[in-house]
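Example protein
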Amino acid sequence: MKLVTAIIKPFKLDDVREAISEVGIEGLTVTEVKGFGRQKGHTELYRGAEYQVDFLPKVKLEIATNDDNVERLVEAISKAAYTGKIGDGKLFVYDLEQAVRIRTGEADAEAL
């Protein structure tokens, strides 16, 4: 099993959700986060004063899946989240040792 974590632009969330359901993934966790990468934030103007925005709003998706779904999932997220501009995000794939569905006690692949 693998845990796929994606950091994407917030307005791409619906596109990514649709793309992952098309490849057969049913569940995900979404968290609103802030951060920066190479773009290092940007400058904004508010009431005539200029200020630096260091942390940009992003959305973090966490998806647990079987090993055989990982490539299709990564490709679906990559295509759906792509804008071609700086700050499109990142994908991380981790090994997932164990998963348990609390309600039923099902474990590992059955719990996904």
Observations:
- The chain has one domain: 2-111.
- The beta strands are 2-8, 29-35, 42-46, 49-53, 56-65, 89-95.
